[in-house]
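Input record (one chain):
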Amino acid sequence: MINGQMKKLQSAFLIMFVGFTFAISGCYYDNKTEMYGNTVCDTANPTYTATIQPMINQNCIGCHGSSSPSGGVALTSYDQVKAVATKGSLEGTMNQSGGYAVMPPGGKLATCKLNQVAKWIRNGAPQ
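The corresponding structure, as predicted from the sequence alone:
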């Protein structure tokens, strides 16, 4: 009699455990966009205002935005960034190419960002 009750109790516990596991796992889902943001790299028509300026503000302005910018390179305005871009320095430093200072010093930018800069320059650096 005790064995029969024990088996029923074990079976009930097992059913509850499996049901609980399914209930919890059913509430979990991965939504790549919600977890990581938009992972598509838009290089179609980058502009200074929409693409380059936010990148500069996030990665460069801390050193190149004061009244005495690092290396004498100011990047606070469209004209300043365009001037550095058209002479090749912006892309060279961001790609960490030989002969250029390594920028940003915290590590190389994501390939998407580098592609956006390159496309922006090839498109004539539109504002």
